[in-house]
Amino acid sequence: IMNFPMFSIFLAFMNRFNNNPRGLSKKTSKTTQKSLQMVPSTMAETWATLSSTIASIMFAWAIVCQYSPYEVRHLIDKFRQKLKDYFNPYIQICIHEFGGERMKRAEAYTLVEAYLSANTSQSANRLRADMETDNESLVLSMDDYERVTDEFEGITVWWGLRKIPASPRSNYAEQGKRYYKLTFNKRYREMVTKSYLEHVMRKGKEIRMRNRQRRLYTNCAGSIKFSSSSMWSHIPFDHKASFETMALDYDKKKDIVEDLLAFSNNKDFYEKAGKAWKRGYLLYGPPGTGKSTMIAAMANLMSYDVYDLELTAVNDNTELRRLLIETTSKSIIVIEDIDCSLDLTGQRMKKVEQSCLDGEKGKGKKKETKEEGRSGKVTLSGLLNFIDGIWSACGTERLIVFTTNYVEKLDPALIRRGRMDKHVELSYCSFEGFKVLAKNYLNLENHQMFDKIESLIGGTKITPADVAENLMPKSPEDDPEIYLSKLIQALEEAKEAAAKKKAKKSKEVELEKKEEVSAADSKDIEKPE
Question: Residue 116's CB: how many other CB atoms inside 10 A?
Fold first, then answer.
C-alpha cells in the first residue's frame, strides 16, 4: 500500500471518479442510467470527496514513511497506537512460550496449555496432537493461529495461539516462538487479572498433576563433580500398590489415610503456624511387613513423585543439602533401612566417650578432629539439618519417610516428634490382613477353612510376605483350597518352630540360673570361717 506507483494509480482512479461521479460509460443502457439517476447527486459527490481525501492522506503517508527520519516515524506510530488503544474496547494479554536468560519454557505458558487442552479441545476446529514424554497417551491442544472462547462467571474471553513472525525489526532468536493471546473487554479488567487468571493457573496445575507420569528418582553417585548435570536420575513410577490391597487392619489404614489427606489439605494451617509444609513418617517393623509397599501406596494416594535417597552414595553434608534443593514439591523423600545406611546410631555417645578418653591428650584430640573433618561423610548433624533445619523449608508439600527393622538402634534425636511426626508400626500378619490377601490372590471373601486359619494366625508370628507367598496361585484354574491348606501347614510349622524356640530359651534361662546359684554356693564355701 505504501508503494508510490500504486498510490498514483489509485489517485488517478479517484480523479476519474470525480470527473464522472456516477462512473457511467457512454455505452451504458438507458435503463441503468435511469435507475442510477434516482441516487441523489449530493451522496455521489460526498463519496467522491471522501475518496479523494483518503487517497491524498494515503499518498502523504507514503511520502512521510519513505523520506522522513526514523524518529519521526516512531513518534507517529506511537501516536497511532495510542489512538487505536483509546478507541479499542478490548485488552490483550500475551503469555510467551519461552522466557528468561536461559530461554526455558515458561511455567505460565505450560499451565495455560494444560488448561486449554482440557477445556477447549472440543470447541477448536484445528488441533495439534502431541505424545507425552513419559506416557503413551496423546494430548490434544490448539493448533497455531486457532482461536477459542472461554466463559468464567458470566464473562466471555478469547484465547488465541500465535507465532512471532519473521521481520527485520524482530529479534532473530524470538522468531517462530509461540505465545497465547488472551482478549477480553475492558469492563472486566479487574475480574480477569485477579480472578480468571488465577483460576486458569490453579486448574492448569491440577490438570498437569492429574495427567503427568509420576517418577521414581535415585541420587547419582559422584554427581557433585558435574555441576551442570542433575544429581537425580529417574524412571517412570508405575507401582500398583494401594491402601485397599495392603494387609493391614482397617483402623490403621484409615488413620494413615486421614492423616495424609489432612496434611495435603492444610496448607493454610502450616502458613499460619509458621511451619514448613512437610511431614515425617517412621515406618518400622520386621522384614516383610510391607514398609516399601506402604511408601508406594502413599505415593499413589497423594500422586507424589518418589525420591529414593541412598545415603551411602552421598559424599558429604554439602552434597546432601544440594540433593534436597533439587527435589520438587509434591514428593516423598525416602531413606530405607536407615539403621544400615550409615553409622548414625549412638554417634553422640561415642563422641562423649572419645572426648573423655582424650581429655588428657589435647594433641590427640585435635588430630582426630582434623581426620574426622577430612573424612567428608554425612554426619548425624547434617542429616538432622536435612530433615528439620532451615534448608528443609526450600520446598512445599513434601513427605520424608524413614524405614527401619530395628527402631531401638536409631538415635532418639533422629526420630523425635517434629522430625518423624508419625510413627507407624508394621507388624506380623493378622487375620484381617489375611482376608485382604485372600481377596487379592484367590478372590475369596469367605471360606470354611478361614476359621482354622483365624485360630492359628492369632498366635503365630508370620509376615504378610510369607502369607502372600503361600497364597500365590500358579494358575487361575487352581482350586483355592490347595493354597489355603498350604498356608495352614505353614502356620502350623511356624507355630511349632516358635514353641521349640521358646522351650529352648526357657531351658537356657534355667541353666543360667542354676550356674549362678552354684557359683554363689561355691563362693560361700570358699570363705574362711
Answer: 24
Helix (H, G, I), strand (E, B), or coil: what is residue 165?
coil
Q: What is the largest CA-CA distance in the chain?
A: 163
- Residue 112 Cα to chain centre, angstroms: 17
User: 475492558: which residue's cell?
Assistant: 186
pLDDT-based confidence at 101, cuts 50/70/90?
Answer: low
Alpha carbons 99 and 265: distance in angstroms, whole number: 32
Q: Are 463 and 247 in contact (CB under 8 A)?
A: no
Please give the residue that has the higher pLDDT: either 484 or 52: 484
Per-residue model confidence as pLDDT tens digits over 47-89: 778 888 888 888 777 777 777 777 777 777 777 777 777 778 8
Cell of residue 469, nine digits: 507367598
Q: How far is CA 312 from CA 317, 338, 376, 377, in A?
A: 12, 10, 12, 9
- Measure the CA–CA gap between 171 and 164, rounded to whole angstroms: 10
3-state DSSP: the chain helix, strand, coil percent, rounded to 5? 55, 15, 30
Dihedral (Cα; 519, 520, 526, 528), 10-degree rounding:
170
Could you please state the CATH topology (level 3) that the domain comprising 217-222+229-344+376-425 is classified under. Answer: Rossmann fold (3.40.50)
| Span 140-184, pLDDT tens digits | 777 788 888 888 988 999 998 888 876 555 555 566 788 899 999
Closest Cα to residue 297, out of 426, 133, 470? Answer: 426
Angle 275-281-282 from CA coordinates, rounded to 5°: 135
Contact (Cβ atoms closer than 8 angstroms) between residue 159 and residue 116: yes
The C-alpha atoms of residue 252 and residue 430 are separated, in whole angstroms, by 12
The dihedral formed by the CA atoms of 129, 132, 137 and 139, expressed in degrees to the nearest 10: -40
Average pLDDT over residues 131-148: 71
157 touches 150 (CB < 8 A)? yes
